[in-house]
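ok so i was messing around last nite and threw this chain in just to see what happens. nothing serious, just curious
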Amino acid sequence: MELKFDKAYRPQILTQIHAMTWSHGMNKPQRHSLNILTTVLVLLFLIPINAKAQSMDWPDSIGWWKANNLRVIQTNLPAYEAATLDPDSLVADLIHFSANTLIINAGGIMSFYPTKLEYHYTNPYMKENMLGDVIEKCHENGIRVIVRFDFSRAHKSVFEKHPDWFYISPQGEHITNENLYTISINAPYEQEQLFNIVEEVIDLYPIDGVFINMPGYQTRNPYIGKYYGIDQNPYDKKRFAEYSGGLSLPLEEDRTDPVFRKYEEFKKFTADDLIRRLNELVKSKNEQIAICTYSEDHVDIIRHESQTNTLPYWLYNASDNVSNTRNSYPDHIVSNASIQQISFQSRYNAVEPAEVVIRLYENIANGSGLDLSLMGDFRGYEDERNFDVFQRIYAHHKKFEPYFGNYTSAAQIAVIAPGSWPSGDAAQEYRGIQLMLKEAHIQYDIIENSQIGNLENSLKKYRLIILPEIVSLDNASLEALERIGKNGPNIIATNRSLTDHPETLWKMFGAKIKNMDHDGAGYYLQPENKKLFTRFEKQHLLFWKFNLGLYDFEGSDESQMPIFTPGIPGPPEIIGGHEPTGFYAVGIKNHNNSKAVLMPINLGKLYFLHGYEQHKNILLDLIDYVFPEVDQLIKTDAHPRGEVIFQHFAYNTPENFGKEVNDGMILHLVNLTGFSGNTYFNPLPVYETTFDVKVDFSPKRIWSMVGEIDITFEYHNGRVKFKVERLDEFDGIVMERK
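result:
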């Protein structure tokens, strides 16, 4: 008897087998036995399928990554797993989880293939052709392979030969992790050996992409949380002197020091130069090899990460990362990885499944594909709670792939981000402002502060731009913002925004700084103008905490919200005595076609940390004042913890690539009701949510992705009204044109 399996059924067969493998009733020895059966089927019976059979036929003239349909799984392999990893099992798992792209270790810290290079340390557990077998079998099944390199560290054996290639702190210390030493970016290991290693891998294997982990300058040991300082390696000293005209490397990170500011320019220049040269090498070998890393210049895929390692948890982390990257670098693809580990110190404990659900759906809703990173492969994994989530959401993306990844935002508000990886007070201010908008279902895009100068024309299309503690801008961005402010969108700025540019504060807002860093604890704000502050009918004074800048608004057209002194806090018998300070929390300046509002107060941080709705209402009232039509895009009774993301879409097909096509709109709904502040629970079902949305067409059909049912709707004068009967964890409401 001859057994034959139609190639079209291969993924389904493997999926059924692995559904049994991951069933809760099967222990690891049983899984191992079933894995043997799977491997036999893969090797003996199943016919390899063509890569195009599992995806749309995108032409070779388009870089494969530009389809923006990534479903990435990264296996961050510990060295010892190279000895046990089974390529057939790995590929079967990737098929089970509907992945179309694998990221797997190749080299840098250690080689996972038989290298012939002197300065590339070989993983002692390496199997001779493990990497080659994985790539071959992935390609047989239509799965792309991006190989991972990490050049931030090198083995002790390399250090012993060339200690001058490695990081040296101002105190003469090296950064070490067991037998690994942190390198210096300007020394020959990165400037020469990096290129030798990447070239060797490209010459040996038909890879689809190169991923560079931890690029750039190192000042700390992230795995133990220790800061060491600015690298003082002689190669860094020499190159910085050449770049700066003879300056010495700074010893401390001090933004007030012009030498340090020059050093920051130098770091960006040298890091970009390294990736530029890498791009030249890779593309000279094969234009179809994608370059992926965390920086934006000279790469094809910008990678970002959703992590959970600091409090308060940031519920919209994936939306933040994807929107920021997509809108700041519109010519790139973004892949935002859900990092499964809780922290570097807790590698084998995954984050909560309910949190992963939110991350992955937020990726989709904001125009990215799917991406997750875990330690090792799936076999014998220490925390399998998220596996059902991976399987379900990756399969959803695969099923509805043409409806994802080709979006144009409907937002009329832009929020300026303080960098691509914000931290500290600026991050809290920025996140608090986003939280206010999200809970009010106000649509917005995110654009990184460094890109204002590059995206001036794009920014002019918005009706409002919000700057949450954007302290400093480069000259090009500052000049662009001033031009935009004169004739373009309204502007709202908070806390210490533009304090490095007092002339711009005066020109845009008519404001002068009197006391930029003033502790507001115990002070009050008075929303006395009830025509402007319409949400404060029953409140006279609003408590304050954190920074409360004292500014002179003599050049503005309006001063709103008087600031009152703390008075006497107690005992109760003697409280009171709150008096006007003569300062105001809000200054408003009129321009030709817009208004510029400055609030030199920590409004976002206060809401992010404490969540009093009254502070959110300050922003919402001011938005209503400068942009009265803000509520016209979406009217809804959705719960504040229901994330609403509204997108124009074009079918993500080769025929539409590079064309201005609008096939309809999608209303993405992510149910966040299970988030308690410190814990992620499964969300509560939400019933009978009504929507009244602005569209520029009469839909031929409105339907639910999750329910796969048509939704009854009414269309009248450019608006669509409908009801979502039930929302569980997610839905995509598709409004298709006729």
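not much to say yet. The domain at 411-629 is CATH 3.40.50.880 (Rossmann fold).
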